[in-house]
DNA sequence: CTTGCTCCTCTAGTCGCTGGAGGAAGTAGG
DNA sequence: CCTACTTCCTCCAGCGACTAGAGGAGCAAG
């Protein structure tokens, strides 16, 4: 297994180099070994971990949650109730966000469709934004 | 029309007091008049403007976009193509976010359901997050 | 050996707030 | 009129999660 440089890790995990260093500083990634010339070297495990982190971030997990999950992953003998709790919390969260965004989409769509292409005077976009009472949805 | 204090404005527009001052500093709210004792005083127009801002923020508009919209609103003689463009950009954005979140929801749901309640050893949550290839969706 | 890329550390900036310190002004009750 | 309480003022620091830049060193290919 040949060592992986930070740039390659960056490409393979689709995470920018400074962000990798940031994750290391925040304790999400283990302190990597260094070459003689003081460069970080990684292995395949780090690629997986970093993908895990990126993926979790895309799912909206906060750094703290991710650290908790990684801690858990590092201790396979512990029951996974905690990981489950974190994930469930996020499921609820995601449902909420989808509902909100769907409502907002309705409004935004209506706004765009009602725009007559004329002056701002008769532009519904600004009107609708100005008066919350005109919203199509009350989900927010 | 009696003057409105910042606290009342805050309650009526559902925007925190420091956030109001922040918006003022960022040029989203006009510099308000002051009382003899140096307190900001607002009017009904400010309530509407602030609601406009809050609403736009909830829709995910950035401060810069909001400033552009407000500028437009202040010049009713200009054509509203720009407002339309901003709103359209956001509609596309929202659609994208909904699609992504829906995919993520699937995954998250599968994760939670597959959690056996046993050890981390057989916990799907960590596995699924660790390996992007197991995703149910390719939308992200 | 030189060119050009990657990497190092460190610091500062981004966005959109949020909170606190320390003090002045306004208000309601006695 | 005095006191107590609330609201407001300014200024400054901090949050999360990066992102960007300066200034310098290491390394691989031609």
From TrEMBL, chains A, B:
Keywords annotated in UniProt: DNA-binding, Transcription, Transcription regulation
Domain HTH merR-type: start-end pairs: 1-72
Keyword Transcription: yes
Protein name: HTH-type transcriptional regulator HmrR
PROSITE patterns named among the record's database cross-references: HTH_MERR_2
Record gene name: hmrR_1
UniProt cross-references to InterPro entries, sorted A to Z: DNA-bd_dom_put_sf, MerR-type_HTH_dom, MerR_fam, Tscrpt_reg_MerR_DNA-bd
Record lineage: Bacteria, Pseudomonadati, Pseudomonadota, Alphaproteobacteria, Hyphomicrobiales
Domain of life: Bacteria
Organism: Methylobacterium cerastii
